[in-house]
């Protein structure tokens, strides 16, 4: 499990999986809100115009129409930038998808701070909290291209609502073609250690792996957990790792409230008395910059995570 | 069913609706009364829907976008045989009941949950689009309130329905001119409603008496015969229709009748049923 220079963004992987399956399954339908380009779905729209719906810049309608289609047997995938999908159409996700229990897969693209310098309007730092609070909504943040593929293949087989968030840019590989262990709704234990547990989701998994490497050189042994399934959270994995280490560190590209950190903290507080620290974006508009610059600034890169873990461990 | 029977039925079901409200101690009586002929004409004359075919892929689909008129909807679905009326009366709004104050699609006959306004039309656009793409000949209907038209999502859906030529979609506006705070034109006006929908590319049918079965029947037939564009029926109804006690009174939006008012209303409804 090594990092390399991957050039394929997770959104492109989603398009490839849907392209492959749409050939056989004519009920698969992709809906976009003038977002086919940013969703990497142009090849799908071109290949399967009868299975593609353009809704225009109307995110509320995007989600409700997807729900209506799902009610009539379609398998809709509604794509929109995560910032709009999770807030502009939040009530449609809550009522028409989750409450009415329609088989809609909501795909939030360019999530977190992927849009960098475009500002807070284009950042989705609240989507995990918002979507997780909806009864019946599952929330997934796959870490790399191989896991994204596995996740999508599983989602194609079920009939339940789900929200998937992926970033805009390619992320370093965590897995490879032959080695991508995946069981639906079970976290992936990337490595086991005895000092600190790093739990991350989405793009932050790679940063946690980087941090673990830095810590290892200093003689600090870290467990690393890829919690792509934020909801339902794999509580067993959290508790086992917490019990075997002195400290739990969560890392997420999200506001500090209501996301992975909050959920992990709830579980650890209830099940075992271990210290938990949460690394996340600030409760404020984020500083201008590309995502790597912003991650470094807020201590969300390998160095920053290692530093926070080290400080918290020595404070114990 | 002949039109005379449908007209009688509308008054019979109004009485059931008032009983449901009294039993549950709550409800939206004004709008329940104004949409009754629309629901009766749809469920007992126009739509291909029954408990027997409720799972068929070719059934007609209905979404009550103004979900707060659920008591009228319950009385119609009970009469159609989807569930027993007595069960609704026993359980409406009670602890643990499936008969809640807005449509609940865990109940037979109810396609989608609603309650928050502005959801029905967009969902129906999706249903109509799926029908077109799958080559099915079902029709999709929704009833919206006139106050509801202030929701922006309605107009997103209006655009899409035209863009995709959804002639299998028919929306009905319960144009009773009243909403919870008062006259719709004072709250957020809908002047030239006909022109607004027409400019969005819809076929618009004005029904001057939206509580008249004959007129509604004609409008729904015209909608079925309209090709290449969606149809909206603007049904000019009377809020609280059925008894002078509540007709055209905004305060009856969700008023629960006193025992005295109940007796008067039921007597008025019975009288009008017999007068048909």
UniProtKB/TrEMBL annotation, chain A:
CDD domains: TPP_PYR_DXS_TK_like (cd07033)
Entry-linked InterPro entries: PDH/Transketolase (IPR051157), THDP-binding (IPR029061), Transketo_C/PFOR_II (IPR009014), Transketolase-like_Pyr-bd (IPR005475), Transketolase_C (IPR033248)
Transketolase-like pyrimidine-binding domain span: 8-173
Pfam families: Transket_pyr, Transketolase_C
Superkingdom as given in the UniProt entry: Bacteria
Protein known as: Transketolase family protein
Organism of this sequence: Roseburia lenta
Automatic annotation (TrEMBL), chain B:
Transmembrane segments: none
Cofactor(s) it depends on: thiamine diphosphate
Signal sequence interval, chain numbering: none
UniProt cross-references to PROSITE patterns, sorted A to Z: TRANSKETOLASE_1 (PS00801)
Record key words, sorted: Metal-binding, Thiamine pyrophosphate, Transferase
Classification via CDD domains: TPP_TK (cd02012)
Every Transketolase N-terminal domain range: 9-256
Record bears the keyword Transferase: yes
Family: Belongs to the transketolase family.
PANTHER family: TRANSKETOLASE N-TERMINAL SECTION-RELATED
Protein name: Transketolase
Organism expressing this protein natively: Roseburia lenta
């Amino acid at each position: 499990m090594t990092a390399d220079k991957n050039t394929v963004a997770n959104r492109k992987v989603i398009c490839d999986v849907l392209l492959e399956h749409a050939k056989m399954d004519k009920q698969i339908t992709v809906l976009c809100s003038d977002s086919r380009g940013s969703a990497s779905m142009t090849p799908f729209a071109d290949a399967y115009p009868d299975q593609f719906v353009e809704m225009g810049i109307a995110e509320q309608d995007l989600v409700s129409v997807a729900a209506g289609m799902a009610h009539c047997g379609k398998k809709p995938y509604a794509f929109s930038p995560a910032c709009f999908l999770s807030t502009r159409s939040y009530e449609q996700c809550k009522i028409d998808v989750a409450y009415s229990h329609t088989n809609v897969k909501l795909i939030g693209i360019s999530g977190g701070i992927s849009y960098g310098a475009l500002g807070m309007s284009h950042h989705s730092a609240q989507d995990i909290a918002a979507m997780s609070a909806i009864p019946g909504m599952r929330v997934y943040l796959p870490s790399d291209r191989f896991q994204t593929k596995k996740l999508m293949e599983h989602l194609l087989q079920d009939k339940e609502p789900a929200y998937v968030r992926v970033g805009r840019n390619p992320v370093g590989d965590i897995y490879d073609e032959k080695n991508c262990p995946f069981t639906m709704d079970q976290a992936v234990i990337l490595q086991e250690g005895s000092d600190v547990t790093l739990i991350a989701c989405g793009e932050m998994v790679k940063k946690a792996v980087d941090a673990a490497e830095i810590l290892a050189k200093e003689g600090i042994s870290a467990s690393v957990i890829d919690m792509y399934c934020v909801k339902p959270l794999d509580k067993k994995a959290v508790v086992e790792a917490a019990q075997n280490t002195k400290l739990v560190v969560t890392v997420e590209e999200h506001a500090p409230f209501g996301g992975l950190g909050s959920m992990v903290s709830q579980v650890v507080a209830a099940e075992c008395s271990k210290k938990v620290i949460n690394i996340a974006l600030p409760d404020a508009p984020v500083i201008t910059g590309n995502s790597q610059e912003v991650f470094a600034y807020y201590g969300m890169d390998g160095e920053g995570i290692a530093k926070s873990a080290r400080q918290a461990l020595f404070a114990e | 069913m002949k039109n005379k029977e449908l007209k009688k039925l509308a008054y019979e079901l109004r009485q059931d609706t008032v009983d449901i409200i009294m039993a549950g101690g709550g409800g939206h009586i004004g709008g329940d009364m104004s949409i009754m002929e629309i629901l009766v004409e749809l469920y007992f004359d126009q739509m291909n829907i029954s408990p027997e075919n409720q799972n068929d892929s070719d059934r007609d689909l209905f979404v009550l976008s103004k979900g707060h008129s659920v008591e009228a909807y319950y009385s119609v679905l009970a009469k159609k045989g989807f569930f027993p009326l007595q069960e609704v009366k026993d359980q409406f709004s009670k602890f643990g009941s499936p008969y809640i104050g807005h449509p609940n699609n865990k109940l037979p006959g109810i396609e989608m949950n609603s309650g928050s306004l502005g959801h029905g039309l967009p969902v129906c656009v999706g249903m109509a689009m799926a029908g077109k793409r799958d080559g099915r000949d079902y029709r999709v209907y929704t009833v919206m309130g006139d106050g509801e038209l202030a929701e922006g999502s309605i107009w997103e859906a209006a655009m899409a329905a035209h863009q995709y030529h959804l002639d299998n979609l028919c929306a009905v506006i319960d144009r009773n001119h009243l909403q919870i705070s008062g006259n719709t034109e004072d709250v957020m006006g809908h002047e030239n409603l006909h022109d607004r929908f027409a400019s969005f590319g819809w076929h618009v049918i004005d029904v001057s008496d939206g509580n008249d079965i004959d007129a509604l029947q004609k409008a729904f037939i015209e909608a079925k015969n309209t090709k290449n564009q969606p149809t909206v029926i603007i049904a000019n109804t009377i809020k609280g229709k059925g008894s002078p006690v509540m007709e055209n009174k905004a305060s009856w939006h969700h008023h629960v009748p006193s025992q005295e008012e109940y007796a008067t209303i039921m007597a008025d409804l019975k009288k009008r049923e017999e007068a048909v």
